[in-house]
């Protein structure tokens, strides 16, 4: 049958001739499409990529940490109140003046200690005069450092997440503030650098007449000093906070001083609540 079909007349195989012609036309169209940029392009279809995709840009370690931190803090963005609120500010004028006094005393001591005293020694002045000049440079530094160390420039309160959902919840938390609530007292070092002291509300005590009357709040620092090296600063145990009600003035451009929280804390620790 196969032999008869092959050698038979073409008129009897008209039904099979058309596929042969159509297959030749398809081969021609296929060849033209490959020459013109691919069969996918001939059919107006986006061609498949037969090569590997370009490698993604490398992400640095800091960028990964930043993304992880943003993902971890995503829940905190829904909270209305920040985690740390400023509840006391001594005033920009007082803080700037105190910093200027500290730096001036340092410059004065450096002038006497590095210029005047060596000149007295080279001139073979009496020992009493040389000692007096050296004391004139050192006494102001020691006096300023002793009397201004307790001065508090800022006080911040650290709030738990449950107290940050709304203003009403914050007021209820402040009204029944636990003794374990943390406060951060900011003072200034000898070179006018901020020093931060983390204090629990229950550790504060009110005193009178301490350090020429310049200290009105104290805390126990024995446990904290025991963990510090001998060459480190001792923990600040006395603080001077101005008496009276703290006004709700602006601190910087955005933050507002929530003085009513400090008033509640002062009443809790036994200070004057006005």
UniProtKB/TrEMBL annotation:
Q: Where are the transmembrane segments?
A: 95-121, 127-146
Keyword annotations for this protein, in alphabetical order, are: Membrane, Transmembrane, Transmembrane helix
On the tree of life, the source organism's domain of life is Eukaryota
Upper classification of the organism: Eukaryota, Fungi, Dikarya, Ascomycota, Pezizomycotina
Q: What is this protein called?
A: Uncharacterized protein
Q: Which organism is it from?
A: Claviceps africana
């Amino acid at each position: 049958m196969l032999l008869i079909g092959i050698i038979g007349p073409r008129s009897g195989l008209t039904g099979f001739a058309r596929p042969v012609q159509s297959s030749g036309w398809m081969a021609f169209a296929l060849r033209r499409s490959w020459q013109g940029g691919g069969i996918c392009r001939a059919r107006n279809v986006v061609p498949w990529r037969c090569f590997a995709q370009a490698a993604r840009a490398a992400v640095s370690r800091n960028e990964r940490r930043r993304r992880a931190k943003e993902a971890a803090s995503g829940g905190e963005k829904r909270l209305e109140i920040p985690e740390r609120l400023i509840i006391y500010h001594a005033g920009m004028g007082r803080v700037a003046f105190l910093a200027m006094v500290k730096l001036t005393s340092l410059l004065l001591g450096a002038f006497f200690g590095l210029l005047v005293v060596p000149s007295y020694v080279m001139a073979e002045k009496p020992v009493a005069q040389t000692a007096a000049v050296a004391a004139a440079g050192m006494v102001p530094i020691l006096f300023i450092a002793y009397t201004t160390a307790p001065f508090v420039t800022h006080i911040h309160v650290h709030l738990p997440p449950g107290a940050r959902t709304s203003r009403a919840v914050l007021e209820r938390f402040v009204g029944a503030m636990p003794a374990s609530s943390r406060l951060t007292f900011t003072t200034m070092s000898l070179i006018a650098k901020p020093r931060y002291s983390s204090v629990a509300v229950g550790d504060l005590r009110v005193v009178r007449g301490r350090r020429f009357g310049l200290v009105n709040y104290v805390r126990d620092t024995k446990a904290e000093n025991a963990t510090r090296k001998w060459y480190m600063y001792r923990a600040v145990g006395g603080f001077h906070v101005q008496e009276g009600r703290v006004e709700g003035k602006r601190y910087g451009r955005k933050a507002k001083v929530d003085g009513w929280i400090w008033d509640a804390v002062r009443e809790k620790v036994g200070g004057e609540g006005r």
